[in-house]
Queue: 2 jobs
Job 1
Amino acid sequence: AQSVTQPDIHITVSEGASLELRCNYSYGATPYLFWYVQSPGQGLQLLLKYFSGDTLVQGIKGFEAEFKRSQSSFNLRKPSVHWSDAAEYFCAVGPYNTDKLIFGTGTRLQVFP
Amino acid sequence: DAGVIQSPRHEVTEMGQEVTLRCKPISGHDYLFWYRQTMMRGLELLIYFNNNVPIDDSGMPEDRFSAKMPNASFSTLKIQPSEPRDSAVYFCASRGPRASGYTDTQYFGPGTRLTVL
C-alpha cells in the first residue's frame, strides 16, 4: 500500500538557519508529490508540487524540494528560515491512478529568534 | 477568488446532537474532498465527490456520518448523533478537473473545529 513517512515530528531551528524536512514515500511508481504548510488555526496551503521533469522544484516562500527516485524521498529545504515559517508541514503523495492524496503525519517547525 | 469557504469555523455541541458542517468549493472545481484531522490519526480523507457524485466514501468512519453535494457550489457533512470522539478539525478541499491524468492541486478551506462535549 502507498504510504508517506515524515520521520521528524518536531524540529526546532534558529531564525536564519537552513532547514531540511524529510519525506519518504512507498509507491510502486513515481507518484505526484506535494508539500503543504498549515499555520495555526488555518487550512493547508500548497508550497510546491512535483509531477515530472526537473527533480528540483521551486515553491512559494523561498522553499524548494528535491525528488530523489533512488531514495524514494522528496525533502523540503529552505536556505534561511524566517520566524513566520513556524508551522506544520505535510508531505503528500498522489498515486497516478487515483484522485486521492495520502498525507504524512506532519512535521511541526518551531523557529527561535 | 474567495477560496474554499467553510462554516461554521467553530462548533461546540453536546453528545447526541446533530452537527452539520458546510462547504462551498472554488467556482469551477468539480472535485470536493472532506478530511478530518486529529492528533492521533492525522489527516484522514473521509469522502470525495466528482461532479456532485460521491466517488469514494471508504473513509467515512461509520453510519453516523453522511455527506451530500446537492449542487456544484455546496456540500454538507453531517454527524448524527455526535460523540465526543468526533471532536476534530474537519477540512473541505476542492480541485479542478483532472487534466491528462494528473493529480492536480487540492485547495483547502480554513476548517471547522468541532468539539463534542
Job 2
Amino acid sequence: EVQLVESGGGLVQPGGSLRLSCAASGFTFSNYEINWVRQAPGQGLEWVSYIGSSGDDIFYADSVKGRFTISRDNAKKSLSLQMSSLRVEDTAVYYCARVYNFLGSPAFDYWGQGILVTVSS
Amino acid sequence: DIQMTQSPSSLSASVGDRVTITCRASQSIRGFLNWYQQKPGKAPKLLIYAASSLQSGVPSRFSGSGSGTDFTLTISSLQPEDFATYYCQQSYSTSWTFGLGTKVEI
C-alpha cells in the first residue's frame, strides 16, 4: 500500500525555521517525483515545491523561493522541506504528494495526510 | 504563471442532480488538466487526469472534458458522498497551478 506520512509541523514564531519530513512506503520511492502542496486555513490548494526523482530538478513557487529548500534521500525513502524566514502567511497544512505520469500527463496520485504549520507570535 | 479560474465557486445541488464545474486556463495547456476532490479535514483525491481519463477506482458518474483553455468536470448523478470541494490543476508547466475550488453543497 502506498503511504506518505508527513511529520515535523508545529508552532513557530515569525522569522523562525522548521523542517518538514515525508516518509514514503509501499512503492519504489526513487522512481517518483514528489511535490509539497499547502493549504491555508479555509483556503484552496497552493503548490509549493517540486523535486525530481533523482533530486536534480527542483522548482519552487515564487511565494517561497529563497526561503524554502526541498531535498530527498532516496536510500531512506524520505523527502524534506526546510522552511526558514517563516511568515504568518506560511501558516497552512502541508501535504507531500507523489507524481504519476499517466502516459506523459502528470498528476498527483497519492497524498499524505497533511501536517499543520502555524506561524504566530 | 498559468492562472486557473474555476466557476462557480460554490453551488447547491440535490442528490441525483447533474452537476457541471468549469475550469479555464489563462493560456493553452493542451490536455494537461487534472481534477481533485477534497472533503473536510482530508487530503485531496485524484479523480480525473489528462482532462478526461478516470482515475482507477473513481465512479463512472464522474467525467471530464475539454482541451486548450476550457475544461469541464461533470457529475452525472450526484450522490451523498460527492458533497465536497473540487479543484482543477494544470500540469502543463511545473508551477502546477490549482484553481480556487468549487464547493458542492446541499
